[in-house]
Structures are given as C-alpha cells and as structure tokens.
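User: Before I run my own analysis I want an independent prediction to cross-check against. Here's the chain; please return only the structure tokens and, at the end, one sentence I can use as a sanity check.
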Amino acid sequence: MTSLEKFIAKYVDLSDAELEDVADKFLSKKIKKNDFLLRQGDTCKDLVFVQKGCLRLFYLKDDIEVSVWFAFPGSSAIEIYSFISGHPSNYFLQAIEDSEVLFLPKTELNNLYQHQPKMQVMMKNFWEDVILNLIPRFTALQTDSAEKRYMDLLSARQKLVASNVANADTPGYRTRDIDFQSEFVNAMGGAPRVSEVNDLPVKNDGNNVSLDREARLLAENALRFQVASQLMKSQIRAVRSAISEGK
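Assistant: Structure tokens:
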C-alpha cells in the first residue's frame, strides 16, 4: 500500500480496487524550493498530498509572513475555506524545500462522488479531522509561533535519533520516534508523545535500529532546522526594517 493509499484508508474503508481507482485520480507534480502552489487572491482548487519535502501555509500581516502550519510527507495540504467556498484565499502555500506532491483537482473529486459514493464518507471524515484540529492549532498560535513549535519538535526528534544510534547494539532496544506531522499540527503543548517504530526489520537480539534510517533522519532534521532558522531570521529582518522605516 502506498503512502497515499494509507492516507485515504485512514478516513474510509475501500476495497483494493476502489482504493487503487481513487489513488489513480491524483496527479503528480514536482515543486522547487520557494515556489508556490497557492497565492493570496487565488482560489484553492486542489487537495494536495505531500510525498516528499515540506510545504508551508502562511499569510501576510503588515507585510510580515505569519506561518500557520507545515505539511510534511504523508500528510495533506489545503486551504479549507477557499477550497470549499470557492472564494479567493488570503493565504499562500509554498514549498520550503524541493518537494513532490500528488494532487486531486476539486472537479475530479466531484466526479469521484458520482461513481465512488464512499468518497463522500472519506471527505466527511477528513473535514471533521481538519476542523477538530483547528481549535488547538489556533490556540497554540496565540502563544507560540509556528516556527518555535517546529524548532522544538526538531530538537525533540534530534534527541530521539541520537538515542536510537547510541543503542544500535543494545539487545532488545526498539527504535523510538515521534509522529512529527501529528504532533506539530495538534500543537497541544507539553512534551511530544514518543512511540516505538514497529515496521523495521528486527535483528536476532530483538534490536530494530537501522543506522541507515537514523542517518537519513539526522540529515533531514538538520536541513529542516536550517530552513526554519532562515524563516525566523527573515521575519526578524522584516521587523527590524519596519522599525527602522518607522523612525
């Protein structure tokens, strides 16, 4: 099962044939770092699924970019109000690193409703999931910036990866990680929930640490930390510039 099919299966039970039929309707696109999938004033017409990279949804306030959330691989990216209402969006959706996405045009989604009625159930559950996350997300936005929460999670994950590498030869040790996307989107505060990673090959001594996996995560974490740092620095520069111009 592909990552897209797993995502769809979270919200509705479909047969293998139905699942394949729905997934085949998604189109693929590669996006360069800093390119936009949506700009302020455009109408959101696509349900986007991130396969690789990272997308950022933000708006402008007094010419300063305010990040609302980040979309990671295995998750969706959508400006819900514009998509449902058909009204122009007040947001931007931007790739903050080279990314690959699958997207389903709204017109194709409406066609699926006709010959795949279960898609109405899927989207109902999907909208409910999005809406249930809105309150804690915006509550967190009143206290911590998206960038700060992002950096905090990067730090937490870096510590877990280091612990996994340190225990690569410990009998019975199981790889630990956090659900990065879920933790960031929920933004409930407090320490992130740590869980064991169970889909890795287990060695004879019961240890399932993959040094290749941990090395990849270290590299990804370092890149994302650098990107987040650059975003925060750009916001600081914008504030300083605004202060200077106001003198």
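Sanity check: The radius of gyration is 20 Å.
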